[in-house]
Amino acid sequence: MDSKSFNFIAFAVILISITNLYSNNKVKIENNEKTNTERSKGKVFCLFKTDNNTKRFESIRNVIEKLGYQEVPLHTHAPHYDWDFIWGYHGISPLKLNYSNLKDHQKINHIPGIPSLTLKSNLATYTDSKYVPKGFEDKLSIQRYSKDHPDVRFVRKNKANRGVSIVTVEEMNFTRSNNILEEFFAQVFVEDPYLINGHKFDLNIYVGISSVDPIRVYYYDKTYNLRFCEKPYNPNNFDDLDTYVISDNYIPGLEFPVIRKYTDHGYLAKEALHLYFIEQGINPKIIVDQIEDAISSIVLQKAPKMLKKVEELKAANGKNHFIELVRFDFILDAKLKLYLMEVNMSPNLQAHPKMRAHKPIYENLVYNFLNLVGIGTTISDKSLGQFTEDESSFVLNDHSISVTPDICLNRPCNETCDSTQCDLCLNCMSDSFKYDLKLAFWEHMNMGEFSRAVPPPNVSFYLKLIFTII
């Protein structure tokens, strides 16, 4: 068996294990030919927002239009279903869509239940991870923690993650209200941050979720988004937020002198940061391994809540309507330990004057993500979910997922599907599982600048784990 066949078999086995972990739900795959014949125009997309800021969609609109989509308006007072894809900024719940009316191929860029990951207080308080500083939403829990950890300081944040300040336990106010901007939570303050030229910084990674069942997660591996505090860090004075908080006054990574000396020669921020670490005698793999582990472990922890919300909507094609692009914001401490500070839903991809140099990066990110999830394809006027049977025959067919003939053509698999070793045999797969594998195969072949985090690339470890369980 060659290495390519082994890698795909391993990938498929991992998908089966994750499917069993997160859902036994089977989605019936509908024939989309009727939908295709009903369409009277090309691909259509909507950009949905609840405010008047249209500039934030600049990069997104530019890419989607280049992929052949036409924009049509979508408003809360007049929701409609004449679209192929919605990109919403603050979520689309105000639209009050009837999800059972969706066509099978329609996609929405928000996964129900994603606030379990993106709401700052949820992430901090209800995530069991070494990468997330502990959070608190009530006085009693923070008092108990403070008693056991007397040297720890706390950061007060409101749930929209604005108004950050270092406070004592006595100064914390956990008053409840109906306004997220007025509700506060506390989080352990990360002491002794890693500094570059005396400045604290954060490291942002864009993460795409293409499926919640089985869970498939990718991250944009081309570069990092770096942001430096405007002023040098001063551990003896926390009155000036610009010394320890990434505020609106931050310095973009491409403009920071240490990074710019590399980026001026055509390199991106990721390469620049790695070169800097190497000059300091630090192996960048220390950081990369933590990033991959943090993304995969935390999304896996939140996946069941997302899947539960998806199932509650009873959408026409179930789980297959929803995708997500978020941004993980990390910091490092002086010992190079990684911490996740927040996950941004609908990260700002507006190339405003300060970030104008990032416009090609933002557009490359969007382009690669849309290709990954099948919204950008090489079939004219079609997204992945709209392929006819004839088109699927040369793009996604059974041959792409046909593996292990030595097992499937011999006993017991050629007679029965009762044995777990037959799970990857075509004659033993349900239509919905075939479809999941074909989508995973599409993503594998169209990752572009993304790398896969879940299922993890370290297949040998997970295969050993899976077969130990079996």
UniProtKB/TrEMBL annotation:
Keywords: Signal
Family matches, as PROSITE patterns: TTL
Lineage, broadest ranks: Eukaryota, Metazoa, Ecdysozoa, Arthropoda, Hexapoda
Gene3D superfamilies linked: ATP-grasp fold, B domain
One Pfam family matching this protein: TTL
Species for this entry: Clunio marinus
Keyword Signal: yes
Annotated signal sequence range: 1-23
Name listed for the protein in its UniProt record: CLUMA_CG005406, isoform A
